[in-house]
Amino acid sequence: MSHLAQHEEWLKELMLKIIVNLGSNVNEARYELCRRNDYIMSNVYFVDVKFKDKKREEVSVILKRPTSDNVKLFYRVDHQFYNEIRFYQMYVRPSDNLPRCFYADDQLPVGSVIALENVNKHGYYSCPYTHDVPLEYTLAAFRELGRFHAKGYVMKELQREKFFDIVRQIKEIRYDTTFGFKKIINLTATRSVEYLRKHGHDEAFCDKMEAVLSNVFDKVMMKTAEPREPLSTLCHGDFTSYNVLFKAENDGQYRAMLIDFALVRYSTPVIDLSTYLYLCGTKETREDRFSEVMQAYYDALKEYLLEAGISDMEKYSYDAFLNDYKKGALFGFVIASLWLGPVNGYGDPQELTSMEFLKVEENMQKKFKEVGGDKISKILADMLLDLKNHDCLKYYFE
């Protein structure tokens, strides 16, 4: 059987199962493949399901399956699909503000697959900004993140055994000693310090930061990603504007919806908050509007907890979350040191993450560390100084 024939047969068998899950006889519906997008780690299919009964609304489905090349092992793609499938099967409830999952399976002979609702018809669309995201989008995203984190706290308080059963099933993707990006992260993290040295900044500060950042994967990333009680909850793990959909409401406000839960993990909120702020947020948001976005996050979280009947709010105080953020904010800066160049349109993400490229250390250093030139280096240097000014670095000098 040809590759094309195998693909068509796979799609046919899968869509028959999805149609049944939609509550329809397979003879009373038909499907149409609208388009296919291929990404680094997944192939995505956009499919419309139409029913003979004209009273039934057409259903738009997004199918995700892993890529078939050797990049799967480096990125642990099978683990990523496993995590997202378990997330939808064990954690998500119909009332959650998430795309509906029509089908999920990681036991098929051809590998994992997830079928989700295409929520465009409900008014949710990708963020038009990949970086320097305007404040109104960031506020909506942080409110939704607050509710998402609060859901984890509620389940942890009220269904503790079930919650930790889910946590135990999560497979580690990034933060262990064998992670392939460890070397690249350590290489790129010192970029800001090198820029500051070149421009005559305080030598003692540069020396201290270089000592931390040259081994940042072990000293910062691994430690920050570890659970710390009582604030550890189920975190998104890849909270960026790429993974948030937005809907414009009638009052001009935005409502957000989180997607893509392959990197979900049990950690404290700072891994999500800092990743978004340093990779996607504007300089103004980080430096001048931080209190506003943090308060929006906390207010949404607190409201969710109180509505669920959680009365012991002392451990969930605003100061507790702020302290957690300050201790771990460097985490998001390190993510930005690696990805800010590509996110700003410098370099080709497909090339930078290809297996051929990643095997060559000289390429890794040159491309990742220099992409975007002094423009990106200065942005990162300003971020590092902002972290210092907001007392987010003192924990590494004690």
What does this protein structure show overall?
This protein is of the alpha+beta class. The protein has helices spanning 3-21, 71-75, 77-91, 135-158, 160-169, 182-189, 191-198, 203-213, 216-225, 270-279, 283-287, 290-307, 318-328, 330-343, 349-352, 355-358, 361-370, 373-389, and strands at residues 29-38, 42-51, 59-66, 101-105, 113-117, 125-126, 233-235, 244-248, 254-258, 265-267.
Beta percentage is 5-15%
- Poorly predicted runs of 5 or more residues: none
**Contiguous helical run count:** 18
What is the N-to-C order of secondary-structure elements (H for helix, E for strand)? HEEEHHEEEHHHHHHEEEEHHHHHHHHH
What structural category do the secondary elements indicate? alpha+beta
Question: How would you concisely characterize the structure shown here?
Answer:
The chain is an alpha+beta fold and 398 residues long. The protein has helices at residues 3-21, 71-75, 77-91, 135-158, 160-169, 182-189, 191-198, 203-213, 216-225, 270-279, 283-287, 290-307, 318-328, 330-343, 349-352, 355-358, 361-370, 373-389, and strands spanning 29-38, 42-51, 59-66, 101-105, 113-117, 125-126, 233-235, 244-248, 254-258, 265-267.
